[in-house]
Amino acid sequence: MELEEALGMFDGAIVNAVGRAADLGIFEFTSETGNVALFLHIQCPFRVLHDGDMMIGSDDMNFPQKRLDGKDSDEPRGSIFDERSKILNRILARLRSKVDSFTMMDQGLLVLRFGPSIILQVFPDCSGRVEMWRFFAAGGEHYGFPRNLFSADA
Q1: What's the confidence (pLDDT) of residue 154?
Q2: Where are the beta strands (DSSP E) in the chain?
Q3: HSE-up of 113 (CA within 13 Å, CB side)?
Q4: How far apart are CA 45 and CA 24, in angstroms?
Q5: In terms of residue numbers, what domain contains 80?
Q6: 57 closest CA partner among 117, 135, 123, 134
Q7: Record's superkingdom (predicted)?
Q8: What is the pTM of this model?
Q9: Which residues contact 74 (CB under 8 A, 6 or more apart)?
Q10: 99 by DSSP, 3-state: which?
Q11: What is the total count of domains within the chain?
C-alpha cells in the first residue's frame, strides 16, 4: 500500500486523544468502523488550532506548567503541553470529532481537520533523512515521512 492510500484510513476516523512520550507527539484515533486503533506519531513541529486559536503546539513540551500562586518550586510538574492536552482531550471527548479532511502536501506537510473547528498542522523541518512523522494502524505496517524509511512505503 502506498503512503497516500494508507493515509485514507484517517477518513472519518474519530480523534480520541492527544498526548506525548518525551518530545514525541501522539495522536490516537479509532477508524470510522470503530474496530481499528490508528496512531500518528510526530517528531517535528506541529500545532492544533481550535476555533482559529492555537490550542497546543509541539514547543509547549519544552516549558513547565506555571504554579497557580506564581512561585517557583522544586516539585515536579508537567509541561504546558501536558496541561493543554488535558483540556484538548476533554474537548475531543465532548465533540467526538471525526477527521473531515486530510491533506499531505509537498515535503510531508500534513493538515487534518477534525469537525468544523479543530485543525492539526504538521511541519517537517529537517532536510536530512530523519523520521518526522509516522502513521500506523495497531499491529499494521508503518508509513511516514520522509518516504522509504519504513518497509511499508519502500
Answers
A1: 52
A2: 14-21, 24-30, 37-42, 46-50, 53-57, 99-104, 110-114, 118-122, 133-137, 142-145
A3: 9
A4: 10
A5: 3-153
A6: 123
A7: Bacteria
A8: 0.88
A9: none
A10: strand
A11: 1
